[in-house]
Amino acid sequence: MEALNSLFSVGFATALTMSNLLWALIGCTLGTAIGVLPGIGPAATVALLLPITSRIDPTGALIMLAGVYYGAMFGGSTTSILLNTPGEAGSIVSALEGNKMARAGRGGPALSTAAIGSFLAGTIATVLLTLLAPIVADLALKLGPAENFAIMVLAFVAVSAVVGDIPQKGFVSLFVGLAIGMIGIEEQSGQARFTLGVLELTDGIDIVVIAMGLFAVGETLYTATYENRLQARVEGIGKSIWMTKSDWRRSWKPWLRGTLIGFPFGTIPAGGTEMPTFLSYSAEKKLAEHPEEFGKGAIEGVAGPEAANNAAVTGTLVPLLTLGIPTSATAAIMLSAFQQYNITPGPLLFDTNPDLVWGLIASLYIGNVMLLILNLPLVGIWIQLLRIPRPLLYGGIVVLATMGAYALRQSWFDLMLLYIVGLMGFAMKRFDIPIVPLIVGLILGPMAEKHFRRAMTISQGDATVFLTRPVSLAILSLAVLLLVGPPLLRSWRKMRRPA
Question: At the top level of its lineage, which domain of life is listed (predicted)?
Answer without folding.
Answer: Bacteria
